[in-house]
């Protein structure tokens, strides 16, 4: 055995798990909860000027009332493309045109649609858990590699425990985020 110090880069593991949480929050923001929100349009991209452009880069998004989102399209020639992108986005919203302003009335969610959205949220959360577990696996692989290079049994146990505690913490965060989102969706 050598006295060489082995250290696992837990900052990198934590940064990658933070990335999984950020992706989950973005996916949750795109789920409709019956209330209007500008963030629900974040995943929508428009074919603009020969490339795919986020909708917030072709117009101003406003929420003038709880059940209405408006998009003031800056370039009049882009109104049709923006409307098409919204229709094809799968949000289930029917855009209404008023000159360069596109109005998106947010319909009331029925019970069946709410349950469907909670299942979608659960799937997003499971994808985040898988991402966290993949980062955990990478961390455990780092520990195994260090073990083959002479890491002591005590250090190996310490780093395995550290990686597992980090994983457990992020899994709890995913579960809490899912619980909150599902409660928000089911709220009438």
Walk me through what this model shows.
- The structure is a single chain.
- With 188 residues, the chain is α+β, with helices and mostly antiparallel strands.
- The protein is 54% helix and 15% strand.
- It has two domains: 10-28 and 110-186, Orthogonal Bundle (Topoisomerase I, Chain A, domain 4); 35-105, 2-Layer Sandwich (Gyrase A, domain 2), CATH 3.30.1360.40.
- The chain has helices at 10-29, 79-87, 111-148, 153-186; strands at 45-48, 51-54, 59-65, 68-73, 96-98, 101-105.
- The strands form two sheets. It has a four-stranded antiparallel beta sheet with strand order 3-4-6-5, covered by helices on one side.
- The chain is elongated, with a radius of gyration of 23 Å.
- The chain starts with 9 loop residues before the first helix and ends with a helix.
Short account of what is shown:
By secondary structure, this protein is α+β, with helices and mostly antiparallel strands. The protein has helices at 10-29, 79-87, 111-148, 153-186, and strands at 45-48, 51-54, 59-65, 68-73, 96-98, 101-105.
Q: Topology as H/E string?
A: HEEEEHEEHH
CATH class of the largest domain reads Mainly Alpha
Largest sheet: 4 strands, antiparallel
Shape verdict: elongated
Number of strands: 6
> Strand fraction band?
15-25%
Oligomer: single chain
CATH architecture of the largest domain: Orthogonal Bundle
CATH superfamily (homologous) name of the largest domain: Ribosome-recycling factor
Tell me, rounded to a whole number, the average pLDDT: 87
Structural class: alpha+beta
Computed Rg:
23 Å
How many separate helices? 4
Low-confidence stretches are: none
Count structural domains. 2
**Euclidean distance between termini CA atoms:** 63 Å
CATH domain topology of the largest domain: Topoisomerase I, Chain A, domain 4
Strand order of the largest sheet: 3-4-6-5
Helix amount, in percent?
40-55%
